[in-house]
From TrEMBL:
Keywords: Signal. Residues 1-24 form the signal peptide. Pfam families: DUF8189. Residues 29-276 form the PLL-like beta propeller domain. This is Carbohydrate-binding protein. InterPro entries: PLL-like_beta-prop (IPR058502). The keyword Oxidoreductase does not apply.
Length: 312
């Protein structure tokens, strides 16, 4: 009789354990966070890149400690679950900056940063082996903010709008910079943004300045023509990919909200409005992804504050 009672109690315990395992907590659906302020006193669009999960590097033109000098680059890092303080990366020697920066990483511990000087030349600064290298003059005759992609270690493509309204590209491969290449007219279009989801694939986006609609041009074995992707944006867009076959576009709407469209399963989804925070957006947004189904989007408001929103 005593042994029978023990067996019954053991059976009840096992039933409780099985029941508790069977009722698992459902996975949380991905969603957009609210806007969060990340500080700063910025006067350009932000550029953002990530070299590994949990790491973000954000760059923008900013004011110095006196609040007067605009010829400086500000840098802030997110790592180990927290934001570090803003750092001053200094100025492009001898030349004032125009537009905003562009940034990309081709692997752990590597960042390449690009700016346009007021003489139209492309400036390049890179982070490698734990230190920032000196500015490098890459020449050119460009205007506005450049765009950059990397499709693998040691591979860079920089795109820009030339002073003659042409789309130009500067490529780094096999350890050397190749000559500037003309890829056709950009008449009526803004400076491009660019994204690559892997080797042999690059997508460019620009705003038609007359209609404010987004236009796309793709390289996949050869360059396509420009295609209309809709929207209504007074300035350029930011683009990001978390893997092959996926592109997310972000732009500042006429109402200063964040507009979002994405390409998935071979089709473009409709534009959606993600809001603009209390002040609204004042600059073209930037975005990065450190893993599938994770996006970090950044904007700047009227007070120069960096704004941050995540999809996860």
């Amino acid at each position: 009789m005593r042994r029978e009672k023990v067996w019954r109690r053991a059976a009840m315990v096992c039933a409780l354990v099985v029941s508790s395992v069977a009722v698992a907590t459902p996975a949380r659906a991905s969603s957009w966070s609210p806007w969060v302020g990340r500080g700063g006193s910025l006067i350009s669009n932000p550029a953002v890149t990530s070299w590994e999960p949990g790491r973000l590097d954000v760059f923008a033109r900013g004011l110095d400690t006196t609040g007067k000098d605009t010829n400086r680059l500000a840098h802030r890092v997110f790592t180990d679950g927290r934001w570090q303080r803003w750092k001053d990366l200094g100025v492009l020697p001898g030349d004032w900056l125009t537009g905003g920066p562009a940034a990309v990483s081709w692997g752990s511990g590597r960042i390449d940063l690009f700016v346009t000087a007021d003489n139209g030349r492309l400036g390049h600064k890179w982070f490698s082996n734990g230190t920032w290298k000196q500015w490098q003059d890459l020449g050119g005759a460009i205007t506005g903010t450049p765009a950059v992609v990397s499709w693998g270690p040691g591979k860079l493509d920089v795109f820009a709008r030339s002073a003659g309204a042409r789309l130009v590209r500067l490529r780094f491969a096999d350890g050397t910079w190749q000559p500037w290449q003309d890829l056709g007219s950009l008449a009526g279009l803004s400076a491009p943004s660019a994204v690559s989801w892997g080797p042999g694939r690059t997508d460019l986006f620009a705003v038609n300045t007359a209609t404010r609609r987004i236009w796309q041009r793709t390289y996949s074995g050869g360059w396509s023509g420009w295609s209309d992707r809709g929207g209504d944006f007074p300035s350029g867009v930011g683009a990001v990919s978390w893997g092959p076959g996926r592109i997310d576009l972000f732009g500042k709407t006429l109402n200063r909200d964040l507009g979002h469209a994405w390409f998935s399963n071979g089709t473009w989804k409709s534009w959606q409005n993600l809001g603009g925070g209390e002040q609204g957006l004042n600059m073209t947004p930037g975005a990065a992804s450190w893993a599938q189904n994770r996006i970090d989007v950044f904007g700047v408001d009227d007070n120069g504050l960096l704004l941050h929103k995540t999809w996860s």
